[in-house]
Request: fold
Amino acid sequence: MERLWSSDTASQESTESHEGSGSFQIVSMDDSQLGLEANPEIMSLLHIARQGDTWQLLPINKELSFDHGFLVTVKAIQLLRDKKRGVVLVGLGGPSGAGKTSLAEKLTSVLKGTVIHLENYLTGGDADDYDGLDMVTLLDNLRDITSGRDTQLPIYNLEQKARTGFTQFEASESKVVIVEGTYALRAEIRPFLDIRVGMVGGMHFNLLQRIQHDTAQKGQQLSTDEVLDALFPNFKAHIEPDLNQAQIKIKNELEAMATLRKPLYVVKSTTPVSREAVEALLDARRTVHREDKYLDLYLFQPQSGRTPQNQIRVRIVNSARYLINDSASRIVMDDNVILSNRNEFEIDPRTFGRLLSPPLGYEVDVSFRRESQICTDGQLTVSLDKLEMEMDVHSEFVQVKSTDRHVMQAAAARLGLTKDSLTAKSYMEIFAGHKSEAQPRAPSPPVEELLREFAQPPPLHAPQPQRPAPPTQRPPPVDTSRAPQTSEPWTRSPTSASIHASENWLLRAPPGSQVLSPSRAVESERMSQSAAAGPSGRGLPRGGVRSELKPKDEWHAFEQGQFMALKAIEVLKQHNGPPVIIGIGGPSGSGKTSLAHKLADILQCKVVSLERYYAADRVANENFDEFSALDVDMLIHNLQELREGRPTHLPVFDFEKKERKGFEDFSIGHEGVVVFEGMYTLHQRIKACFDVRIAVTGGVKFYLVRKVMRDLEKKGEAPRWAEVMAKVFPMYRKIEADFVHAHLKISNKFDPVHSLLDPLFVLKSSKQVAVSAIQRQLDPASVKVSTQTYEDIFLYMSHSPKGPTEGDWIRVRNCGGRYFILVREPIREGDFILQPRVDFDISTKTMGGLCDIGYAAGFILRVTATTFQDDRLTIEIDTLENISDKYIQIKATDRDLVQRTGSALGLDGSYTTKPFLDIIHDSSPTAFAESIDLSRSSSAVHLQEVVHRNRHNHGTEDAGTVAEQISAMRAEFRDIQRRMARQEWSSWWTVGMTLILAAAVVRLYMYPTRLKSM
Reply:
């Protein structure tokens, strides 16, 4: 029989071009050559050129986001690695803080390569010093690597400012080498590089935006170019020209100061703790000890106020490293737990000096010194800190830190840190508070003396930048002849709005209640601006007025929105006390459920889905996406009981039987927060029940719409976005109307490739393994076992005579009476499948809409899956009912853990990266043909019913929509008539009054004449 799809159908196109004296063959690569599933948007960017035995990636004339840049770089490396006979060398250059190190780590976690950090080639200067690199050693190392020879890579100690040794590079163990650093794309290095990646953005852009915002607060408007000239004078001359030579250009739009991608949980205590107690707490095999000395300086712009939002923290570590951070980028949670984003941006001492010099003109508000004894085992960090303060004030603290809140809290308990001993104040607040009590604080501390004593060389003694030229004069031109220039270079054009103007939350009295007094309003604003100061007393504020958030009109990125939501919760808990009830609304696939669970993980609270409230008598036709399907009265009753601090009973809905199967007890925990999420959370009827209302749009939903539009274009149609949205997500317009009620609006630009930054590593094998052997690999205290049967429906739109290719499928899972879109665009690397973790539920209307557009079910995959899962690892036994074969899959976010588990189960050498469709086709064409017979599938029969019902309802809805439009037009016409009548009456009234006034004036004028005549 004819195969319905092929991962090999994309044709290779070859053309001849000439560049210089060499003849290059330009080849457009398809995914079958890389072992990758199709991603048309990504694969269309990749082209390589061959000259003899040399292969080269052609420049991509498009700026990529961090997520897409990561995926394109991975695929480009795989492409060249398969074509070359040696190592693939990647240069990753850009300014400090752009995200180079993070990207390099992500790449090596996938490709298992070696990273060469240029800071190890320093000769005693700074990492941003153009002439401070040992280029002789670096070029010798690169020659050895490209020749396939082992070599010695230097190790440099930044604190000692000296080379401390070498590490051995084994050529046979690494096929990918990444050269990472500010000057990784220098002219001397470029000839050795197969792929050149330039990066800008990240904290580099964030700092520029922050400075522009701060200087604007004091009435000084500085352009991006002016800030660059003042802060990073080397950028235009020595960094930007090389970035324009990059083949892959990445603009990292991460709002680093307001992201909690990997938050750090911290508690700080005044309880004395010995080093012996700390060492007993940690894993001795992995524990690392160090002692650090810090000088912390908090900078602010004069005339802009001394609040955390207006301060920049510069931390000097061991007289060597200068780290910069936003002093407001922390959130205080319950029990004085501090949530830190850990984002610090390393600068050189001269940059610090430029911050204090004109035209930037920052001043030091607070400065103090601290010594820390730090012990860490990789999972937990304990720091014993001592501040240099007067003897009569407590100056010794212990900090316990971890990315896992449970680990942090358990460690704090073992160290005997009581709640009474915890403080959420920053060291700046402790030090400044003591100084304000002891003596008036000088407006400018003796920073020069501190720096001369603490840091060498003193940053203030570095050459100062010149003031920008007046607008009438042009600055001297920079030699950028090596690359074309544009009016708005991609290297210095931040596209995202500054976060600092929108972080603060303001409170207001709710409509119909007592208005806050001026003093109270000022206090509310102050509390919102100093949220990091720690929680205040619980309960209602004085006067019994529960204030509400003032809504923000602008839209925010997903991670920024998450940060701001946590800030809003912190402010409300400080002012109103618990409980704080959060409502997150938006269409299917927008990311509302993901946001709800991210907030819940951080806050340690519970999530309630509005899907619980479906009423059995209202969902007979599976109209789950209708507001009328919800038992709103019960929802409001539950919310009222939770608002009053009482336990309540939440309904439980069975989707398979489409009925309510009971209730379960529910109450808000000690954290005082609960999150409700659902499509209609912001509906007019229930919106007032929520303290924080969040609207989320975009997300994977838009990914599906883009996919549909691409398929329609391949078919020769010219689809319109609005038409596709109306077909696939017919309820979106109704939900969108509720966004106006949100306090916070989030536009989720999430793309499935984003998940590949933190992928699920999967090993798949057909080898049979005993259940007892599987259970031995899991933690018996947390292991869970479950079995479920599902059917995957593979939809395709027929637009090719050869049938659908692998990238044409839309994979829909029918499990337990619900439909889910499965996004599977993995990277295949060796035996591993790196899989995005993206699934989202859809309604039957969406299914019907897809079929109505032209999609058809081309294959049904029936699987019974038995899953063994603990906190770290998932092992799944899949029985493919189509061919009665079993496969084992090992899944985790830790690649090494997956590899070790597979080896322990004896699976080495038996792995496959084929998708199940390939497996079924290759093993049994007959079974494959039977899987196409849709009459054998209950899912296919149900799908036909859905399509029929959708088309019937669609006609009814269209008629209803027309009637609604006619009714609305008639109402508008009547309103126009009424306004015209009022206007006509007003005109006659004006004319009449004018005549009366004119007559009165005439009579008044004639009155003296009459008196004389009398």
